[in-house]
Design brief:
Layout lengths: L1 H5 L18 H11 L3 H6 L14 H9 L19 H11 L15 H6 L17 H11 L11 H10 L7 H8 L3 E7 L7 E9 L5 E4 L1 H4 L4 E5 L5 E11 L4 E6 L16 E2 L10 E6 L7 E12 L8 E4 L11 E3 L4 E10 L2 E9 L5
Parallel strand pairs: 7-12
Antiparallel strand pairs: 1-2, 1-4, 2-3, 3-6, 4-5, 5-6, 8-9, 8-11, 9-10, 10-13, 11-12, 12-13
């Protein structure tokens, strides 16, 4: 498990690796996509599939796996991602990933064990008896064995591709480039007790998703207020026309900002951010937080991802914990990776610890 963790294949959380838990089909597919060093490809592409029961965060994994023939559904329009996977089913996934197929006569979906024993993926066919549930620990052991197995008809193995992928990422931007790319799309937001915007209620941050003024901030920044205005890096102030959607549980609000400023001038288009995938974040990744801490607009701090799956005070959804410093007023700001892509919304921090910031994963919200 530790080896797979260092390669980015296995993710943990506050509950650890949960090796005794039975793996689900979507967990199994995610592991297969990572084994092939194709997670970024899967999450950044527009892959198609016929299933109606796939959640938004898993859509890329399922689309990629289905398109590449790695997995099929449990029905014509049902993927069954939350269903438990058996050892036999997971071996089928792994064999397909290694280039073996049923159509070529390499194995059958009823009997993946014979070939799996030959390849040393498992020790005995008894390990893949029909219906045997595949724990996350068993999935780890099979995957670890598969790392060094050469693809069918090739001289390379998954581990070779993973090492090349991990060593070959040269798309990172400098902090200066990131600031230029992101800062203009992040704003400070003032909320008010009254519609005339004379009695200030709270301050926060936000960022634009579209050029016509659709933006995001934290729900708690707006909660209880009657009006709001945003201030751009340029110093121009624009009223918030309304709330498009609000989710108290996830602490996210989508708002619409007027293109006509308070002083009567207008803007043709707002600068926007580029959205990334929070599922690609890993512990140790460099990140940057943009917002308006203590009302100081256009503030950028840097840090690293400290934990990708932090549950706090019984929260239903996990946060990304980062070491980038934040303070009151940063709520609703943008958490950005080293490509200048937004992967989270800064939301909270531990009391007395400015370098323990909690961010809402962008995959879970937009």
């Amino acid at each position: 498990a530790d080896e797979l963790y260092t390669l980015g294949l296995l993710r943990g959380g506050d509950g650890g690796f949960r090796l005794d838990d039975t793996a689900t089909r979507q967990e199994a597919l995610t592991m297969i996509v990572r084994l092939l060093a194709k997670e970024e490809t899967a999450l950044s592409g527009t892959w198609k599939h016929p299933f109606a029961d796939v959640k938004a965060w898993a859509d890329g994994y399922v689309g990629y796996g289905y398109t590449k023939g790695l997995v099929k559904g449990v029905g014509a329009k049902t993927f069954g991602g939350e269903e438990n996977v058996s050892v036999s089913q997971y071996l089928v996934f792994v064999l397909r990933a290694l280039g073996y197929s049923e159509s070529a006569g390499d194995f059958t979906w009823r009997d993946p064990a014979t070939l799996s024993v030959k390849l040393d993926l498992i020790a005995s066919a008894k390990d893949a008896a029909s219906g045997t549930p595949c724990t996350r620990g068993e999935m780890v052991l099979i995957t670890d064995n598969a790392l060094s197995k050469k693809f069918k008809g090739a001289d390379t193995a998954p581990l070779d591709n993973l090492r090349a992928y991990l060593a070959g990422d040269s798309s990172s931007l400098s902090s200066t480039q990131i600031a230029r790319k992101v800062a203009g799309a992040v704003f400070s937001i003032d909320t008010y007790y009254d519609l005339d915007c004379e009695l200030q209620f709270a301050v926060g941050s936000g960022f634009f998703l579209t050029a016509d003024g659709v933006a995001v901030t934290n729900y708690h920044v707006l909660k209880g207020s009657y009006a709001a205005r945003v201030e751009l890096v340029s110093g121009e102030t624009y009223p918030v026309e309304g709330v498009i959607s609000a989710d108290n549980l996830r602490d996210v609000a989508i708002i619409k900002v007027s293109k006509t400023a308070v002083d009567g001038s207008s803007i043709s288009r707002f600068p926007t951010v580029t959205l990334g995938r929070s599922a690609l974040a890993e512990e140790g990744d460099p990140v940057y937080a943009f917002g308006s801490p203590l009302g100081q607009a256009n503030t950028m701090t840097d840090g690293v991802v400290s934990n990708i799956c932090r549950y706090v005070d019984g929260s239903q959804f996990p946060y990304i914990q980062v070491s980038a410093n934040t303070a009151k007023g940063s709520s609703g700001g943008a958490l950005v990776n080293d490509r200048g892509e937004v992967i989270g919304i800064t939301s909270a921090k531990y009391n007395g610890a400015e370098d323990m910031t909690l961010c809402i994963p962008i995959d879970d919200t937009l």
